[in-house]
Amino acid sequence: MLNEGPYSAKIGGATGIYPYKVKVERYLRDLNGYFSNKQLVDEMLSRGENPLIYVVYEIDRKSEGEFNVGCTIIYPGKIGDEYFFTKGHFHAKMQSSEVYIGISGEGIILMQDKNGRTFAEEIKPGTIVYIPPGLAHRSINTGKMELVFLAVYSSDAGHDYETIEKFGFAKIVVERNGKPTMIDNPRCCLKESK
Ligand code: M6P
Ligand code: ZN
């Protein structure tokens, strides 16, 4: 198949990148089961509270060897004391890596291998975070404003959500004494292997 042609796009504006091709919105209902305080999530949803947690604007490509370029905007907020985050995923094609570039706001990129060993990198404006092959990744907004970052990854990497949806990450990031703090996930089955 022939590749599509080159393009240029702008960074900025309300969508982070423009023009974009695909928009994905994730509300609390879409992340049901992901946050630690499941009871609070149930209560919020039954009260009709269903906040928008994050949005992804993407320029996707279809051919092998191409990159997708996306911008993720995670809104500031917490469920209980746990900061808003993305679902998190392994790549279906495990050898695929990914690069994140911080645009605005601040947060943590939490990564984890198949044995439950975790890694964390801060992201803020001007930061590059490299996610090597084989690591699941979740982005967490620990700040008071929107966390906005770009992501570049192989168009055929694929998203494998299943493991994270089932077991979560071995660590979670919560507010303690007004500060983001990484703690063991009390609900998690995948323990960190040292
Ligand atoms: C980044 C990239 C995307 C991903 C998005 C949201 O932009 O990693 O591939 O879709 O973050 O993360 P998730 O798919 O885990 O919800
Ligand atoms: Zn990814």
Key structural traits:
194 residues; mainly beta; three-stranded antiparallel beta sheet; globular; disordered C terminus; binds 6-O-phosphono-alpha-D-mannopyranose; binds zinc ion
Q: Kindly state the percentage of residues in helix.
A: under 10%
Q: Tell how many strands the DSSP assignment holds.
A: 17
The proportion of residues in beta strands is 35-45%
Spell the H/E element sequence. Answer: EEEHEEEEEEEEEEEEHEE
How far apart are the termini?
45 Å
The main sheet orders its strands as: 3-4-5-14-9-12
Which residues form runs of ≥5 with pLDDT under 50? Answer: 190-194
* Structure classification: mainly beta
Largest sheet: 6 strands, antiparallel
Overall mean pLDDT stands at 95
Q: How large is the radius of gyration?
A: 17 Å
The coarse overall form would be globular
Q: If helices are DSSP runs of H or I spanning 4 or more residues, what is the number of helices?
A: 2
Q: What features would you describe in this structure?
A:
The chain has 194 residues and is mainly β. It has helices at residues 38-46, 162-167; strands spanning 10-11, 17-18, 22-27, 52-59, 67-74, 78-79, 82-83, 90-91, 98-104, 107-112, 118-123, 128-131, 136-141, 147-154, 159-160, 171-176, 179-184. It has two helices and 17 strands. The strands form six sheets. Strands 3-4-5-14-9-12 form a six-stranded antiparallel sheet, with no helix packed on it. A three-stranded antiparallel sheet has the order 11-10-13, with no helix packed on it. A hairpin with a 2-residue loop joins β16 (171-176) and β17 (179-184). The longest helix is centred in the N-terminal third of the chain and has 9 residues, at 38-46. It is globular and about 50 Å long. It binds 6-O-phosphono-alpha-D-mannopyranose and zinc ion. Zinc ion (ZN) binds next to loops.
